[in-house]
From TrEMBL:
Pfam family name, one: 2OG-FeII_Oxy_3
Keywords, ordered alphabetically: Dioxygenase, Iron, Metal-binding, Oxidoreductase, Vitamin C
Record Gene3D superfamilies: q2cbj1_9rhob like domain
SUPFAM superfamilies hit by this protein: Clavaminate synthase-like (SSF51197)
UniProt-recorded name of the protein: Fe2OG dioxygenase domain-containing protein
Record InterPro entries: HIF_prolyl_hydroxylases (IPR051559), Oxoglu/Fe-dep_dioxygenase_dom (IPR005123), Pro_4_hyd_alph (IPR006620), Pro_4_hyd_alph_FE2OG_OXY (IPR044862)
Amino acid sequence: MEALSLPKSWNVDQILDDLDQHGFTVIDHAYPAEYVQQLMQECTENLNRFRDAAIQNGVISKIRSDHILWINEDLEIAQQHIQALQQLVQIFNATFYLGIKEIEAHFACYNAGEFYALHRDNPQGKNGRMISTVYYLHNEWQDNWGGKLHLQDKNNVWHTLEPKPNRIALFQSDLLHEVLEAKHQRLSITAWLRSDTPIL
Ligand code: OGA
Ligand code: MN
């Protein structure tokens, strides 16, 4: 994959139109098979470094039970995904004047039985998260494996999105959503497009 061009399968007009009309969009077949394989390998090689997402700054929360690994320069394959998102940021800033400056991202692993209860990534504009993106990187996802993303759009209509492999769900960070309990291991990268510098 070329580092600095938008992947061919990303339909920018559709993405902008969906975001404008509904506050969310879905990009399917996001990356070429070779890249998907490399990313999956990088994720699974590092699974032993994932930490309990419910514990942040020593505070334990009951609303989520997944495990995460924050992405920095040492995760070179995942960085290419962030670079692709960076291309979208330029378009979003030019179109919606979002003032996005930063991307923060982590891998997430939901093992069987794990979930993320109803929440907003940016309640009441408290942090700089403008747009949330979730890329699903497991090889397979069957309909009865749970783990669906349940999302309320900007018109208050609820949608159920399957975590299909090689799909990106992209939504306004102020929208209400949840991850239903997964029945199989569910692997993803969550990335937030932020209008400020993240404080981790
Ligand atoms: C999150 C989140 C949704 C998903 O990481 O904040 O809501 O489908 N993820 O994994
Ligand atoms: Mn979320």
